[in-house]
Amino acid sequence: MFGLTEQNLHRDLKKKGVGLSYLKHSRNFIVRFRNIDKRGVLKSLVYENRRKNNGKRVIDKIISGGQTGADRAGLDLALARGIPHGGAIPWGRRTEAGILPDKYQLVEMETDSYPARSEKNILDADVTVIFTHGKLAGGSLFTRSKARQHNKPVLHIDLDKRGLSEAALILSLFLRKNRVKVVNVAGTRASKDPAIYRKTYAVLDLCLERRGVQLDLFFPE
């Protein structure tokens, strides 16, 4: 058994083939090897969190702006898992699909400005996670810029470049590194990316699983 340190995570993930010597020991994370070829190159692995949650939530609250797509996936995941949720939403509870249903416990702002809504959610959260397929644009780009402006940790997950399990691993370590209690989930709206809801939900769900995350064929040739 070997472990991935948070510091070396991104370096290791970028390698197309990772030799065993690149992976470091860690008290908090376990990597169980699968499919190691004759040259000792890792082809797939299982990530496990060594720390036990003892019934505690990984995060205390999920917030978002309530828009269709990535925002809504975060809220629905929170409802499904019994995690408190919330967030700021423009006056009138406006979304591109109409008025946001009352089951979503978001706070209506006095302004109908989407940028103002996005900035408030950034400030109210410990970190912001942005889900897209491809490069940031529009509201997602604005969100990252504002997070950086306010010196708030922000993670962009490009699902064109990351598989679901790989994205869940990166997100899990990002949350632990920043000792997160409140997560702001943002990203592309459904009208621009019909697949973003399903994939955002899946990544968040995998991230919060207590079992290991299987990373099949994680390091291709």
Automatic annotation (TrEMBL):
<dbReference type="InterPro" id="IPR024755">
    <property type="entry name" value="cpYpsA"/>
</dbReference>
<dbReference type="Pfam" id="PF12694">
    <property type="entry name" value="cpYpsA"/>
</dbReference>
<protein>
    <recommendedName>
        <fullName>Molybdenum carrier</fullName>
    </recommendedName>
</protein>
